[in-house]
């Protein structure tokens, strides 16, 4: 039996039980009153019966309108939510929702409306994320196959009987190295995301000289083949020593991911500037570029785990995990990340650590 029918039968049973008790009690009282006032028994019984029927119908109508209908509607609503339909039921069997009066259940209806809105929003976001994840998976598969085909192709060329000169061999080896580094980065990104999900990323805090540390990160980054056509500058406002307690491994990985994002999503020749500044209550690292920038929609999705950005003339754009990973690395060290960007006016990534 459906819950709605059970509620209706329960209310009817309670109503009839109280009606019967009211009838017995009321009849006894009415009989006593008629004896006192010496009323005609047939008239008094008819008057009582008419009075009882009117009261009975009025109470029944009130219970039906104020309790049964809204309660049945709410049960149907909850049942609908449990089945994955995140919309309000528009009608009941008898009334449209506009004609119903919820009375005692007004607060419950309001909370259900909020819950329905939240569930619908969450479902829409889940569907969008599933669609993004599908595209991302297809993209990552392509991203692995493309550099792998380069590696296989150039390895076959080097293995051929043709006598290549030294410059050609170095060129082929450089391409193989670049593609291998990209595949390694992609696999590392996937591994890190898995470790984050399992809460297995250890934190090894050390006091380091941030000026020297960032200089070393930039020197290593400039050795990547894809970064050679991007001028990179480092400003410290004349300060040589800024001590900060961080995890060097996680911070280096985060900075490299931010820098890689600036390279992957901007045209060749884009200038990248890293500024380090010690403020009164915090230490700030700013990574800025004068590249293509981002619109609001792109900016909003920048740190989504599966967002891959827009296309440029690059043959690959990264896994779509780098920015999400970098943000999590910074936040794990009690830092915070803010991004300021405008279309065709470049991007600023501001990293702040408390002193």
TrEMBL record:
Q: Spell out the coiled coil positions from the record.
A: 105-139
Q: Report whether RNA-binding shows up as a keyword of the record.
A: no
What PROSITE patterns does this protein's entry cite?
HIS_KIN
Compartments (UniProt record): Membrane
Name the source's superkingdom: Bacteria
Query: Known catalysed reaction(s)?
Result: ATP + protein L-histidine = ADP + protein N-phospho-L-histidine
Q: Name one GO molecular function term.
A: kinase activity
Keyword tags: ATP-binding, Coiled coil, Kinase, Membrane, Nucleotide-binding, Phosphoprotein, Transferase, Transmembrane, Transmembrane helix, Two-component regulatory system
Q: Where are the transmembrane segments?
A: 7-30, 42-63
Q: What class of enzyme is it?
A: transferase
Q: Which InterPro entries match?
A: BphY/WalK/GraS-like, HATPase_C_sf, HATPase_dom, His_kinase_dom, HisK_dim/P_dom, HisK_dim/P_sf, Sig_transdc_His_kin-like_C
- According to the entry, every stretch annotated as the Histidine kinase domain falls at 139-355
Give EC number(s), comma-separated.
2.7.13.3
PANTHER family xref list: SENSOR HISTIDINE KINASE GLRK, TWO-COMPONENT HISTIDINE KINASE
Q: What is this protein called?
A: histidine kinase
